[in-house]
Amino acid sequence: MTGPLVPDLLDDAARRWPGAAAISDGSRRLSYAELENLSRIAAGRLHRSGVRPGDRVVLRLPGDVNFAALLFGALRLGAAVVPMNPALNPYLLEWIVEDAAPALLVTGTDDVPVMRGRSRPPVLCLPPGEQLSGAAVADADLPRPASSGVALLMYTSGSTAMPRAVVSRHDQIRFVVAAIAARLRYTAEDVVFNRSPVSFDYGLYQLFLCARAGARLETRPGLAEVRLLSEIRATGTTVLPIVPTVAEILLRLSARDTRPTSVRMITNTGAALTGGLAAGLRKTFPRAAVVPMYGMTECKRITVAEPDEDLDHPGTVGRPLDGTEVTVVDDEGQPVPAGTVGEIWVRGPHVMAGYWDRAALAARPFAGASPADPVLRTGDYGHVDRDGRLYFAGRRDDIFKRKGVRTSVQEIEAAALDVPGVRAAAVRRPNDDGEFVVWVAGQVEPEQVLAGVLARLERAKMPDRCVVLPELPTTPNGKVDKAGLAGRQSVR
């Protein structure tokens, strides 16, 4: 089936805005015409390295100019791209390579570990700063991939403990990019700053959204925290996609640097943005609207709020994207009335094609629909109001009963974050022995946090213990690493 492809986004941008800046990684800046040409050079380089339609290509690179060119180049060939965080540990790197069975592994360093399982794939080392070279490939030299072909394998962790790859087709990506773009309304005058790794779909899709709008992407995955606010200011950033841990960093930095920025919009996903963090961002970036969103790798984005909609409707993550249906159901899969908490189910053209090479696992998230019209059982809980706005309550494992009272970890985290002196907070379900712990980062005593939570919530929701740390551990995607909290003790 022919239809729009992901690399068409870049080709269209090169026709409409050939001289406009497309991407800058702090070392190199390319226009859309230059990036399109470099992607064709990348396609030639990959083809000479043995990549063919239907193959997988692992890109173990930061989200720099070379990554962007190789991504679009591989997609031109009809290959599927597997973005990989260069900071991924050797054990998980080997797991993903074994699982994806790529025709090529492109890396920025030569420290690829020895593969113990299947034979090591061919490796193309492209050190930072080295420019792709060679003959560019013309469309006439390549068979056009089908829009139903696989474009991305996005590895995400889950209840299976080991990463599994969400399969995304060209047509699914094009649908959801258009739907998100209709809500966020990036323009050709925008400068979008991305610090998230491109192995996180929130970071990766900034490249697609910018190409659709003709905006400039300033990509800085792994940028040192201390430089974050100064880079946002120096680049003239107007759109700032963040996760809550980055919001915390920005608020700390802004206490020492109050100079104005050009930021007009802040988007958030990955975890809920509490009222205190949102208020702090509005104070730090007074000209910026805050846009809460909700999504999953299995369908990218589900809802997007209107700018500052959370001011009138606290806690909302917005309404479903156009073409997306959200239903909240009970334990029997029956829809519940507005205002009632239940599991969030999603239907739409962007719902994933399945998990890579996981036939048994792929069936688990779906319910009551044909493979051509899947319904995603998210495992997340929330409710919708009478106007269709969604409110996220937490993951299935984050909601539990304590002393007979229904409780969510998000509710307790929000209460802890409201305590003066607390910068970050995390809660896990009670452990096997029933102990219930809240971990916080900040200049505060454990007793103050516990008293503050008790003043804000019912006694049944009160944690047994508070652990104060200098910082909470985070995952490569910038989310709080709750698995890494176990056993952590207060640091004085």
Automatic annotation (TrEMBL):
It comes from the Bacteria. Keywords: Ligase. Pfam families: AMP-binding (PF00501). InterPro entries: AMP-bd_C_sf, AMP-dep_synth/lig_dom, ANL_N_sf, ATP-dep_AMP-bd_enzyme. GO terms for molecular function: ligase activity. Residues 11-356 form the AMP-dependent synthetase/ligase domain. This is AMP-dependent ligase.
